[in-house]
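Meet today's protein:

…
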Amino acid sequence: MEYIKTKDFKGAFDFRDYVVIQLDSDVFETDQVGEGLYKLHISQSSVEEKVDLIRKLLISTIGEEFYVQKAAQILFAIAVDEVECWLLPIYFPTKKAKAGKTSGCIKTPNDGLKEAGADFYIDLKHRDCYRIMSKSFQKRVQLLSYSKLNSSLSIFLKELEEKVVEAKNGSEGEV
């Protein structure tokens, strides 16, 4: 939250087509984010409402004026509860309840990894493990299929698609 207030954050837009702001909603259950009002509302909201509340908080933190200038470049990847929840559809594609979970998302994929005979677990948060686990996301068809099972992943992909279409439509009129 502090980083998006900095000059470094604002300078990133000079060198990037898009800037992705990734935040797990579970930080609102900790002292990492001191936004009491959001803590109160977040726990009682649907996935869509949580994403919208956090998005509004991030825009407010970035600054409304700066956001308006750079909105076409900003993507919000807001994972409800943890980004590990986005991995669940890969390991539980036929178990909608598990694939769509929004809590306990580190333990659950570990159960899936065990069922799949993997020799690693994600509780140590090693980058290479996440690369292996998310490999299925490299194929657009699979990613879109999996996103139907996880609401916050679906929201992110919808926003991504909208930004790409906007950029494509904007560049078609240029010479």
Summary: The radius of gyration is 17 Å. Residues 82-150 form one domain. The chain has ten helices and two strands.
